[in-house]
Specification:
The protein is 77% helix and 2% strand. The chain is an all-alpha fold. The chain has one domain. A two-stranded antiparallel sheet has the order 1-2. Helix 1 runs parallel beside helix 7. The radius of gyration is 21 Å and the shape is globular. The C terminus is likely disordered.
């Protein structure tokens, strides 16, 4: 390996690591706010990329039918709960608004899909559809379990992952799709040839991190999420609706997942289950950050991207084994750091 090859591997590693960083931040966000280890985060990647691929060919993406089905199930669940609790018109109005918004989004996509808008416009539409899927998914599967233990939430997350994987196969089939690059640009930086899509990934990841930093530090919604993450009971006492905070967290996570899929689809063929492996690597980065630290998770994601790039060059057969083995020393370190506190509690 010479210096030029090493630079190319670093470039590839940082590009992939930026995608992992977006997913890691989304997983940390969901866990800190809702205590859910969100295994299906990778499905948002696949749904975003494959929705964009369908829109690019002028087809109506089948994800809108999934959104309609989820919205109807949420409406039925909320209606039954309202009848049992004796709540009146106010609750019914809220249910109607949620259903109408989802149907309006799906109707607009159904009408606009055959018009074949530019790539950037189709990308925005894809992200919006997946965001609403994420929100309705939380309201249907996880909102009723918000007081459950982490183990119960993890089991529910695994069940949702299996369901979404099967639905992905039914909606998109076994064939993969690839989209054209958003920026068809080739630049030269010394021995490196930098593509427009790599630049788009770096810029998008940087903008997303900066936007999230501003959101958490300077907006009421972000401060509410931070308060919910720090102390759920205390947040309720202060009047913060923790269920609404969960909805917001899932919406942001779905946006980051769908954006990741849109960004990576020009570089790699995306299948209905591709996102699961990508999401797992984002999860390893989130674990490196302790599932609480956004900067550590982002740094861990970049490290994973670099490690994967170099191990692919040396031995492609073992690249996933080596990357997933990275979680072992992290878990070992966590077990040592928490052992003393556990012993103190036993005493």
């Amino acid at each position: 390996m010479n210096g030029n090859i090493a630079l190319l591997l670093i470039q590839d590693g940082l590009t992939v690591g930026a995608i992992y960083a977006l997913l890691a931040v989304a997983l940390v966000l969901v866990f800190t706010v809702t205590r859910i280890i969100f295994i299906p985060q990778g499905e948002f990647v696949s749904f975003g990329a494959l929705t964009l691929a369908a829109l690019q060919t002028g087809q109506v993406p089948k994800t809108i039918w999934l959104l309609i089905a989820l919205a109807c199930l949420v409406a039925v669940r909320d209606s039954v709960r309202c009848i049992r609790s004796g709540e009146g018109l106010r609750a019914a109005r809220g249910i109607l608004v949620n259903v109408v918004v989802s149907f309006v989004v799906c109707g607009l996509v159904y009408v606009l899909a055959p018009l074949q808008f530019p790539l950037w416009a189709d990308a925005i539409i894809s992200v919006v559809v997946v965001v609403f899927i994420g929100i309705t998914l939380y309201r249907l599967a996880f909102e009723p379990l918000q007081s459950a233990s982490i183990l119960v939430l993890l089991i529910a997350a695994v069940g949702v992952h299996l369901a979404l994987t099967g639905l992905g196969l039914a909606m998109f089939g076994a064939e993969g799709s690839r989209t054209p690059p958003m920026f068809d640009f080739q630049g030269q930086l010394g021995p490196l040839q930098i593509g427009g899509q790599s630049i788009a990934i770096f810029v998008s990841a940087s903008v997303a991190m900066a936007a999230l930093s501003f959101f958490f530090g300077a907006t009421l919604g972000g401060k509410a999420l931070r308060a919910t993450a720090a102390n759920r009971v205390g947040a309720r006492l202060l009047g913060i609706r923790t269920a609404r905070a969960g909805t917001l967290a899932f919406g942001l996570a779905a946006a980051l997942g769908a954006a990741s899929g849109v960004l990576i689809s020009p570089l790699s063929t995306i299948y209905y289950d591709t996102g699961f492996l990508i999401g797992l690597k984002g999860f390893i980065a989130a674990v490196i950050g302790g599932l609480v630290s956004y900067p550590l998770a982002a740094v861990g994601a970049l490290a994973i991207g670099l490690l994967e790039s170099f191990t692919t060059f040396e031995t492609s057969k073992l690249k996933d084994v080596i990357v997933f083995a990275l979680i072992l020393p992290v878990l070992l370190l966590v077990s040592f750091t928490h052992r003393s506190s556990g012993e103190e509690q036993n005493n």
